[in-house]
Amino acid sequence: MDNEKLSLPQYDIPEDIQNAVAITTLDRLYNWGRRSSVWPLMFGLACCAIEMIAAQASRYDMARFGMEVMRPTPRQADMMLVSGTVTKKMAPAIVRLYNQMPEPKYVVAMGACASGGGPFKEGYNVVAGIDKFIPVDVYIPGCPPTPQALIAGLIKLQEKIDKESIRKVRWYRKGPDTMEIPLPILGPDLIDPRRNAEIKMAAAETKEGA
Ligand code: SF4
Q1: How far does residue 57's CA lie from ligand 1's centre (Å)?
Q2: Does the chain have fewer CB atoms within 10 Å around its N or its C terminus?
């Protein structure tokens, strides 16, 4: 047990009992347990995924952060690591996977493509950032980010988890425990059903002007 992180820093616990005693808060215990076992969903979209794989291998070893158990099913994953170019064809599948992940869940956008479209921004087949569809907790810049940059981003995610409070987190609030995101519709272009009203209004204005 990493007693140092579990215990509150203001309490000076004698060295000989540090492995047996911790003085902490419920929030810290709750966050410490989750931040030390963030299991990523196993999928990669493009070249960034190679760096993600490198970060999992022995040299960088994400096991040091409790993140080595990459899950092939969203139902056992805590964190979606979007590593690579998000094409319009892939976006509905990503949103479906996100919806299938149980709370608490986090999203990391790895690299320029996942964060904003990267070198393919405004391309006919590329989404200009996965945050157009699902909420992103941490963005990692780079094309591709190095394994070190990925690990720095994951440490940022751990810091974010550290600041959460069990009394305020969304998954313990009354009402639906998770926010289901409507699947984007892939036609000639990708349509976000949440923007239907806006799309209809723009179409009506275009019709009037014609
Ligand atoms: S950000 Fe660069 S390295 Fe990553 S998927 Fe896009 S083009 Fe490839």
Answers
A1: 20
A2: C
